[in-house]
Amino acid sequence: MTQALKNTGATADSVTFRRMTEEDLDAVLKIEYAAFTHPWTRGIFLDALKSYEIWLMFEGAQQVGHGVINVIIDEAHLLNITVKPESQGRGLGLRLLERLMSRAYELNGRECFLELRASNLSAYRLYESFGFNEIGRRRDYYPAAGGHEDALVMACTLFE
């Protein structure tokens, strides 16, 4: 059990995961729109359901997050990871990341890549704590209020 879960009183058994279906879309969008200034749209999620694995995270019966991965040959990409704003700061992001990286490994992913907003320090710390390292920067990659924002590119070797 991770230290973050011990600190919250949550148990590993209270957090569960399952694959997303189209019927979950409204609940996913509610969390996505609450968490981000530039969220994924309904159309993006519908396309993602056809091509990627989307996993939902529940605490008890309540949906608290979702994540999207894609694996091509041995390369995984973490495309989206979202935790409901009122559930953040309790170690659930790490639990979701661990599940997604475990699944990527099951699909033969041996290296994982991701991009995140340069301003997203909490996500940066999460990824860094898991073992991701910054390997590059994409200038003006993300739309932002008043212009664009750089993306940081991070990578991590996956282990069993």
Shape: globular
CATH superfamily: Gcn5-related N-acetyltransferase (GNAT)
Percent of residues in helices comes to: 25-40%
CATH architecture: 3-Layer(aba) Sandwich
**Spans with pLDDT under 50 lasting ≥5 residues?**
1-9
Classified by CATH, the class is: Alpha Beta
Number of helices: 5
Query: Any idea what the radius of gyration is?
Result: 15 Å
Structural class: alpha+beta
Number of strands: 7
Average pLDDT, all residues = 92
Q: Please write the string of helix (H) and strand (E) elements.
A: HEHHEEEHEHEE
Span of the ends, CA to CA: 16 Å
Tally of discrete structural domains: 1
Q: What is the CATH topology classification name?
A: Aminopeptidase
Strand residues, percent: 35-45%
Keywords:
160 residues; alpha+beta; Aminopeptidase; 5 helices; 7 strands; 32% helix; globular; disordered N terminus
